[in-house]
Amino acid sequence: MANYSHAADNILQNLSPLTAFLKLTSLGFIIGVSVVGNLLISILLVKDKTLHRAPYYFLLDLCCSDILRSAICFPFVFNSVKNGSTWTYGTLTCKVIAFLGVLSCFHTAFIISAKCCVCHYI
After folding, report:
1. How much of the chain is helix, strand and coil, in % rounded to 5?
2. Helices 54-82 and 91-121, packing angle to 10 deg
3. Is the pTM of this model over 0.70?
């Protein structure tokens, strides 16, 4: 990689066990809350018939997108931190996970802007 330096690699790998534990605990908490929270909101949106309107369909789409990002991208980051902040999955997997993360961000921005436009006219 163009920006790779050995000095930065040594700094990331020499973290204390407490720091690694705090990072892993935080990431696990973020993954769990994200998946469970978005799943609960999705179930509510599907079951409640009064919420079957355009703004809530956008919210359901955002929930599904966030569940996929949390279930697919975050576990790779979690394992990377667990392995001393080293990426052990290869360059193709790195590119695919990075693409999915960026795609999720742009998807979220697009859906929020679309929701603002649609809800303005409803």
Report:
1. 85, 0, 15
2. 160
3. yes
Report yes or no: 100 and 66 within 8 Å, Cβ to Cβ. no
Contacts with 97 (C-beta within 8 Å, 6 or more apart), sequence order = 72, 73, 76, 89
Q: Residue 70: which residues within 8 A CB-CB, separation 6 or more?
A: 30, 31, 34, 35, 38
Query: How high does pLDDT run on average in the chain?
Result: 84
State the residue range of the domain holding 63: 1-120
> pLDDT category, 115, cuts 50, 70, 90?
confident
Contact partners, residue 89, CB within 8 Å, separation at least 6: 76, 97
Specify the number of domains making up the chain.
1
pLDDT digits (tens, 9 = 90+) for 33-79: 999 999 999 999 999 999 998 888 888 999 999 999 999 888 998 88
